[in-house]
Amino acid sequence: MRNIFTGNIQNRSNYFIKRLWPQSLYGHLATVWLAAMIIGHALQNVYGYMAIYDDQIARNDYYLAKDLAILLPQLEDASTAVRQSWLKQMERQGYSYELGNILAKQQTVLNSKKRAPNALIHIQNELGSAYVPTLLEPQEPKEDFRLRIQLHDGTPLTVRVNKTIWPHNWGAGFVFFMQVIAVVTFTWLAVKQATKSLSRLAQAAETLGTDLDCQPIPENGPSEVARAAVAFNRMQTQIKDHLAERVQILASISHDLQTPITRMLLRTELIENAEQQRKWQTDLNAMQILVEEGITYARSAQRTTEIVCRVDIDALLDSLVCDYVDAGEQIRISGEVGKIISTRPNTLKRIITNLLDNALKFATDVELQINKPSPTSLTIKILDRGPGIPEGELAAVLQPFYRVENSRNRHTGGTGLGLAIAQQLSHSLQGTITLSNREGGGLEASLVFPIVRENKV
Amino acid sequence: MHINKMDHLLIVDDDEEIRDLLQQYLEKSGYQVSTAANGKQMRAVLAAGGVDLIVLDLMMPVEDGLVLCRELTATQTHPIPILMLSARNEEADRILGLEMGADDYLTKPFASRELLARIRAVLRRTRMIPTQLREVKTSRLVRFGEWSLDTHARHLIDKSGALVSLSGAEYRLLRVFVDHPQRVLNRDQLLGLTQNRESDYFDRSIDILVSRLRRRLQDNSREPVYIKTLRSEGYIFSCNVERQGDGV
Known about the structure:
The complex is a heterodimer of chains A (457) and B (248). With 457 residues, chain A is an alpha+beta fold. Chain A has helices at 2-20, 25-76, 80-89, 115-127, 170-210, 223-267, 274-300, 313-326, 345-362, 407-412, 418-428; strands at 95-99, 134-136, 143-150, 156-162, 309-312, 331-334, 339-343, 364-370, 377-385, 432-437, 443-450, 453-455. Chain A has eleven helices and twelve strands. Chain A has a five-stranded mixed sheet with strand order 6-8-9-11-10, with helices on one face. In chain A, helix 9 (345-362) packs antiparallel against helix 11 (418-428). Chain B contains nine helices and 13 strands. In chain B, strands 2-1-3-4-5 form a five-stranded parallel sheet, with helices on both faces. In chain B, strands 9-8-7-6-13 form a five-stranded antiparallel sheet, covered by helices on one side.
């Protein structure tokens, strides 16, 4: 039990340290630097202050010794009244005198402070062997210690040595305050400057994830960051070249395959056996689709060249569904946007077509559902009643050539590129596609993309 | 539809085997077929005359299909319809081909029956509207009322400039209407003209298609402005059609 309890406390304190410890590099640097600066300045100021304080004490005790050397001979032969006037005159802020046996209890100072013994040594040096001062305990809160010196006529002289008041130097305090302000300000500026280029780099890396044609990052800032920026820009160029090369290779293969496939398709007309002819044509069609999908996928990774235009989105989706219905497919459409939006119509059509094809291939009861749009985004859902996709593979099926391990699918054919193409193309609409299994069976493919709306004219 | 004279097709393709196979197949389907491997040979065949339709490959060395297509539409007074073949399945290529004056566009590889259907459809269209064909072909934008029809991209543009998509069947029907304004068209004629391919699954009646088209045009079916119903006769497109300059 105890272990668990202490463990909890440890966890909790770790948690708070983690909470308080800043996450960003900027926060780390600023905290460490600021702490170092403030501790340094504080130490320096405290040390300076202590030095002034010690100096003040030393001076006070030095003057006391000198004063006593002057005062004592004057007191020896004087009348009581003269003595009193001398004592009054020689009184200072740091010490005062009193004649007579004002305290019976004589006790040597046990104070561990160095001040009293040091002062005693000074005074003894000044007075020589004529007088023997002794240290006494302080009697009042403002006193540090007392001294007793016996005059030659036997009258005791008591010296009350006051505690040194801490010097309050408002000017120095103000300067310290300004120092702290300056340190905070410049720490903020310097660290901001150093991390600005880093956060720019991080942002560029994020942008690159969705947009390969984003602007190269300026190659300036601190030398480490500048080097990283150069490397980053080079990487961006390489990725772009790589993708362009991939598209080029696929385009070449695709183009070179098209002529032989065309020839073979034409040659199937010469095949007498109808069954054989049908099989040849089926295989060749499958090859052709693979070639086309391959090149479409490769191109979809590049920035689309299609321009954004104002589109009646309801007509676009409805006419798309009508084409399927005219071809004998069963698709229902529900909901409407009722607005003109700015988008890339052919890209959008291709995405929806691929999602519908996928639903029609594996399931029945296909529905295209247009959700009531929010002011900034539009959600189009393609719903079906079919086998769905195992939860663990929902994200993977959006990858090219991935097929769900299900005997049903192998026979249904398909290139395994339809969803990957849709996913890639959704990026050029700044949109996302998410798949989920529906309650009661079937798949829901949801395309969400930002829109700028305007009322229909 | 029986025609006394055999239709004469000219196949222009740089691939010898495709030329031969196409010739073989189309001759078997009842056409007279000539072939040409390049622009030079094409011009020689055309000089002899009698060609009804040209099947033109887009990707050819030296003079490609687009160049030849532009030449054909620019120089001939009674242009021969062109069916363009291309290895590229890009919307932009299709539109470019149509802008250069092609009547239809087919992507390689294609099924031979698909080609045959397209050839028949293009010839049928040419026969039915011989005088207006050229006009239709060269004007990309057709204006009527508050609408423009883009005959290359195959969509409508409303008065605010927004794009209104059409399904394939809707486009074909509207195209028939704007090609025959102020003329009564019965259901059989409409069916014949809108059926582009033989393989078309077309169980929807013309009436349903007309009501869909009216919805796209925001045309009130009780008091339609564009497509009016003539009881027991058919439909009439009762709006003036204005053709904009061609894109060439």
